[in-house]
Amino acid sequence: MNGAVLLTALATGLAGSAHCVAMCGGISASLGLGSTRKRYLLVYHGGRLLSYSTLGLIFGCLLPLFGFRPHNPAWGAALRIVAALAMLLVGVQIILGVNWLRRLERYGIRLWRPLAGFVQTLLPVRSASDALLLGFLWGLLPCGLIYSALGLALVSGNPLAAALVMLTFGLGTLPAMLLLGVFSGTLLQALTREGSRLLLGGLVIATALWTVWPFLAV
């Protein structure tokens, strides 16, 4: 099941590239300009991936904290079904090009406001440590796409698997972010055109069905 969830997380990151560029592209582009700042680009994205992984680790602790034991056969079967439903919803979301969790962003903004002022003090980036911290904090930006990935992390069943899910999601967002200003226009068009959405969404839906096939075949 974990492989199926990881595939879904990667597809979510790839399909959401346009949204990620809109949210984080300005900082990524500014870090890529000039010889003195280019070296901070990978550090910034490393901080972002670390932030996603940390969130996954936290969310992965929630089910065990409430007594959920995925290694128990009955719990494991229930978790597999819930994970398949989550993947199915993500697949439909990718195909339709919608963000069903956008409303949650308004609640996340309340938590983000205290950080927003501090983030501004890190710009322009003057050191690698600033770039790392900026990337980590930017990973906490309210975003429905991240919330979808966190839902996948939650149903992965354990903290390490959940952290890996979020890391995989972050890796899916990297190509467009790293190539911003070079090939990103072509890449974003390729990832957001209808055919690509259908392919990624269809793959996720097929993976979801494969995950619950043992139950459907009974």
TrEMBL record:
Domain annotation Urease accessory protein UreH-like transmembrane: ranges: 8-210
Regions that span the bilayer: 49-66, 78-101, 132-154, 160-186, 198-216
Keywords: Membrane, Transmembrane, Transmembrane helix
Database matches in InterPro entries: UreH-like_TM_dom
The protein, known as: Urease accessory protein UreH-like transmembrane domain-containing protein
Protein source organism: Cardiobacterium valvarum F0432
Native organism taxonomy: Bacteria, Pseudomonadati, Pseudomonadota, Gammaproteobacteria, Cardiobacteriales
